[in-house]
Amino acid sequence: MEKIIEVTGLKKLFGRLEVLKGIDCSFEKGVVVSILGPNASGKTTLVKSILGMVIPNEGVILFKNKPVINTFAYKRDIGYMPQIGHYPDNMKIGQLFKMVMDIRQQDASDTDLLKAYKLEGMYNKTMRTLSGGTLQKVSAALAFMFSPDVLILDEPSAGLDPLAAEALKEKILEEKSKGKLILITSHILSEADEISDHIMYLFEGQIKFYKSLPELKNETGEQKLSKALTKILSL
Amino acid sequence: MLLAYTLLLMAISLTIFMSDPDVTKGLVSITTVILIIVPLVSIVYATTYYFNAAEFTEMLVSQPISRRSILLGKFIGMSSSILAAFIIGVCIPVCLFAFSATGITLMISGCLLTLSFVSLAFLTSTITRDKAKGIGLALMLWFYFSIIFDGLVLLFLYSFADYPLEKAMIVLTALNPIDLARILILLQLDISALMGYTGALYQQFFGSGSGIVFSLLMQMVWIIVPLLFALRIFKKKDL
Questions:
Q1: Which of B60, B176, B66, B16 is nearest to A82 (CA)?
Q2: Which is deepest, A109, B1, B122, B172, by most CB within 10 Å?
Q3: The model's pTM
Q4: Does the CB of B80 have a partner CB in chain A at under 8 Å?
Q5: Which domain holds residue A150?
Q6: Of the candidates B56, B62, B238, which has its C-beta nearest A75's C-beta?
Q7: How many domains does chain B contain in total?
């Protein structure tokens, strides 16, 4: 399969704390990769490095074979959903969407989630009046809006109601079938079990393993990801 | 908050002009008040705004747009709104009551002062990581430029009183945007005679065409240099 993101020797220090200790991995098209790991294992830092929000101390990140550090044009092909969306209080939902269209010089080509979450009727509501869950819906709709080749979702279902989470899951699978790469960081194993093809497990800034889900289950002889994980980690 | 600032400035200018028929005196009083309030509000407001919008900045960085454009965009947005408050609150009353060379100097140096303190606010916000430290640093800078600096200058003058200090004083003045604004306005008022020998020298230097150009240029430097440093830091910052 065609590799879309390649990471080599990625290191990041925050002060004296080494958060990423040399990450080597690559991600290909048409798969869902779940990045798992305990708190402070470097999941978010890895994702933020790919997005150019954190600037690594060492290492190379290739996006479609081009180095990305300190560039920004490649972000046109990425949709990012943050863990918690924060937007200016007085901004209306419609204004936010319009502004992002302006920045990306792209039109909204995918409005499935907008419809599923009934956001179109709320364009005149300001961000201040929205609940946490609705903000998450806005973030999700925004990530998928421009049909990017890569979707990066940071704890996507945290704060979403069950129906909304289900709609998001369906959307993820649909995009995957179109050949998109979807990176998800998550703590919810049952969810990762349902949708992911590959599991990357980070521990203290290093990749403990990076395997396909069936492979992982075969190796451990377990049917559930949570059991397989406990088994492989206790070895 | 910005509305309150506009109203406050307007209330100050209007009451001063209304209560005293002598507009020159009025301009002096306004200068005194403005040189304290304008830097304080500009730096604190811009820093607070920057930290309140930190997460949104993060989201913008994930979009295909350079960090340079993000920060410059924020600077333009921020400074135009604070500048608008100054123009409505001070420039309009001054135009109505005291439109003169002094009035114009007051307006221009007030605008430049606003911009330089917004620029300093961007520097303090990019240097620090959390809101409390950022605002603390902003307040310290304001305190330094409006009070401590003058104290240091006095100390310097006192300890080197036996030497000719006129040239040095001009250089020292350029190191503080508030002093630059103050001297520019006061010299337009022909009260520099009250400032003794140094005042006469100031009059000779800052009163001349090249002196005015020099001080305007120095004020521009105070806008551009902190912003450039902020840009450099922001480009390498982890969000």
A1: B60
A2: B122
A3: 0.89
A4: no
A5: 3-234
A6: B62
A7: 1
